[in-house]
Amino acid sequence: MSTYSGIERSIARLLGRFPLLKKFAKYSYSRLVYFKEKKRFKYKAVVDPVVYNVGHGASFFGYYDKSPENSQGLVLGLVSTQSTKKPPAKNPKIDFVVFGSDRKKILNISLCAYNWQQGCRGHWLTDDLFIVNDFDCERRRYVARVYSVARQSEVKMFDRPVQDSFSTDYFISLNYQRLMTLRPDYGYRNLPILNENNLKDLSGDGLWRVDYETGKEKLIVSLADICKIDPLPEFKQAVHKFNHVMISPDGNHFIFMHRYFIGKRRFDRLFLACSSTANVCVLSDRGMVSHCFWVDTKTVIGYLRGPEDVDAYWLIDIETKEFSRLPDNALQGYGDGHPHVYGDWFVTDTYPDKSRMQHLLICNWRTGEVKKLGEFFHGFDFEGECRCDLHPRFSPDGKRVFFDSVFTGQRQLYSMDVLL
C-alpha cells in the first residue's frame, strides 16, 4: 500500500502554516510520485460495486453523515449533465432523484442549490419524507423543501436551509452564504459572497433551530457567543464560520465545528451543544478537527488532533470529555477519512495515496479489527472543490455501503454488499 509516510505527513503538517506553499508542494509532489507508484487497474474490490444512474451523466449523493437509503430500499441521489470536473455553475438546475429498489427512477425533482461535496444536503426524515435545500428565485433566499414519495410532491417548505435534522421534530440551519464566501466546497452559488462588513457580523449569524411542525426559527448559537468561549486575542482579526452540524441519535445534543481563518491559515474547534437549552461546551480545541460522527448518544468518533498533538481517529466521551484511541491504534498510517458508524463498526475512506488510489475500509471501533473493502482510482482531473471523496455511508441495515467515486473518469454513486 503506497500511503504517505510519517515523515511526509509531518512535512505536510508543518507546511499547513503556509497554505499557498503547501498547495504548490502537494500539487508537484503528488504528480511526481504517481508516475512511480501508479497501478495497472482502476479499482479492486471484494465485491463488484453497483452503479446508480439514469443516463450518461454524473451521479452522486454527497456527504458521509447521511445514508442515501431508507428502510424500504429507496435510494436518494443527484444526477448532473454538467461536468463535475469544474465548479457548479451559478444557476443551472440539477436533478434530485429517488431510485427504487431496482435502481430505476421513481421520482425526479429539479433543484438549484448544490455543490459536489455535500450535494443539496438531501436526506430522509421518515421512510416517506425527505428534505432538500433549494434556492427560491423569486424571494432570493435559500430554503429547505420536504417531499413525500407516496404523494410524489412537495409537502412543506421552510425559510431556512437545512444542515442536519432530527426526524420531523426540528432541524439546525446555518448560513450557506458565509460558507460560500469562506469555503465554496460546501456553499451555494446563487447569492453573492459576503463582503468584509458582513463577515464581521458575528452576533446576527450562527446556528438556527427550526421547528418542523410550526416552522418557527431561533438563533440558538451565534458566532459571537462562540468567540467568547475560551477566547483568543487573534479572534478579533480572524474571520469565522460554523460548519458540519451533526445531531446525536436521540436528538438531545449536536456537535459542530467553529472554524476561523487568520489570512489563509485555518484553525478548528469542535463544540457540543444541548439541542433544547443551547448550552455549549468545547470538545476539542487543539487546532485541527476534520471529520466526526456519533458512535452512540454519549460518544463521538473523529479524525482530529488529540492528546499530545497526535492526529488520529479518537473516541470522545461527551460527558467526561475524555479522549481514547482505537484499540491497537487501528488505522494508524491511513490518515484522515470520513467515518460512518453502524453498531460496533464504522466504514471510512482515505484520500488518494501515491498511486492515486482511495481505500475503502471498515473498522470495529471496539476491537480495532480492520477489513479492506476496496481501492478506487482518483484522477488528477478532479481537484480542489471538484474532488470526489468516497464519503462512504452504511445502509440502514448495515448490509451495504454506498460511496461516490470517479474511478471510471465520471463521478458516480455506487453501492457494495458487505458482511460484518
Question: Which features characterize this protein?
Answer:
globular, 420 residues, 4-stranded antiparallel sheet, Methylamine Dehydrogenase, Chain H, 5-stranded antiparallel sheet, mainly beta
Topology of this structure?
Elements: H1 6-15, H2 19-37, E1 43-45, E2 50-52, E3 58-60, E4 75-80, E5 94-99, E6 105-111, E7 123-124, E8 129-136, E9 141-148, E10 153-158, E11 164-166, E12 170-173, H3 176-182, H4 196-200, E13 206-211, E14 217-222, H5 223-227, E15 239-247, E16 253-262, E17 265-274, E18 280-287, E19 289-296, E20 299-305, E21 311-317, E22 323-325, E23 340-342, E24 345-349, E25 357-364, E26 370-377, E27 393-394, E28 400-405, E29 412-417
Describe the overall structure.
With 420 residues, this protein is mostly beta strands. The protein has a single domain, classed as YVTN repeat-like/Quinoprotein amine dehydrogenase (Methylamine Dehydrogenase, Chain H), CATH 2.130.10.10. Helix content is 11%, strand content 41%. It contains five helices and 29 strands. The relative contact order is 0.14.
Radius of gyration: 20 Å
User: Would you give the CATH topology?
Assistant: Methylamine Dehydrogenase, Chain H
Largest sheet: 5 strands, antiparallel
Q: Which architecture would the CATH scheme give at its second level? A: 7 Propeller
Low-confidence runs of at least 5 consecutive residues:
none
Q: What is the terminal-to-terminal distance?
A: 23 Å
Record field, number of beta strands: 29
Q: What percentage of amino acids are in beta strands?
A: 35-45%
Shape: globular
Overall mean pLDDT: 94
Counted up, domains total 1
Q: Percent of residues in helical segments?
A: 10-25%
Strand order of the largest sheet: 1-26-25-24-23
Say which CATH homologous superfamily is assigned: YVTN repeat-like/Quinoprotein amine dehydrogenase
For the record, the CATH class is Mainly Beta
In quaternary terms, these chains amount to single chain
Structural class by secondary-structure content:
mainly beta
Question: If helices are DSSP runs of H or I spanning 4 or more residues, what is the number of helices?
Answer: 5
